[in-house]
Amino acid sequence: IGQNFQGRSYESVGDCADMSSYLSRCHSCRVESGCFMVYDRTNYMGNQYFMRRGEYADYMSMFGWNDCIRSCRMIPMYRGSYRIRIYERENFGGQMHECMEDCESIMDRYRMSNCMSCHVMDGHWLMHEQPHYRGRMWYFRPGEYRSFREMGYGNINFMSMRRIMDSWY
User: Fold this and answer.
1) Model-wide pTM > 0.90
2) DSSP string, 11-55
3) Sign of the C-alpha dihedral, residues 86, 92, 94, 96?
4) What is residue 90's DSSP assignment?
5) Per-residue model confidence as pLDDT tens digits over 82-120
6) What single DSSP character describes residue 61?
7) What distance in Å separates the CA atoms of residue 19 and residue 70, rounded to the nearest whole number?
8) Other Cβ atoms within 10 Å of 12 Cβ, number
9) Phi-psi map region of 106: left, alpha, beta (phi>0 left; psi -120 to 50 alpha)
10) How is 91-107 classified by DSSP, letter by letter?
């Protein structure tokens, strides 16, 4: 798919670990329903971006990407409570804070300058590398994440987080 929805198209109704067998490149995207994370590498790796219903005619310039969508993951709708524990160090070490709502600045709210691991107990979350939900983002579904570095995120330090709410669908 070229910019502005030109060329071949591929429709995904769920997770797709490798879109290259369907499309050699993808430069525009339309989300007709639901929410998705899209990735610039196969197998849900690399840069990620959250997409909800709407048209993204030239998402590459919008996101600042040099490459195109290579994989996507559907985010299931969730209507329950939200709960995440964030930790100052890897392997759930150091300070721990349990959150049930969005947090614009982990540093301002918790006086925590590092967030290196987390445990998502309930809900689906987006974590951002800068305060006020700015910068690169990562999607976390329920599970234990012992080391962001070992997950391939390098020395990323998350500074804000928010819930993926059912109102976004």
Assistant:
1) no
2) --SS-BS-GGGT-S----EEE-SSEEEEEEETTTEEEEEEE-SEE
3) positive
4) G
5) 999 999 999 999 999 999 999 999 999 999 988 999 999
6) H
7) 5
8) 17
9) alpha
10) GGEEEEEEESS-BS-HH
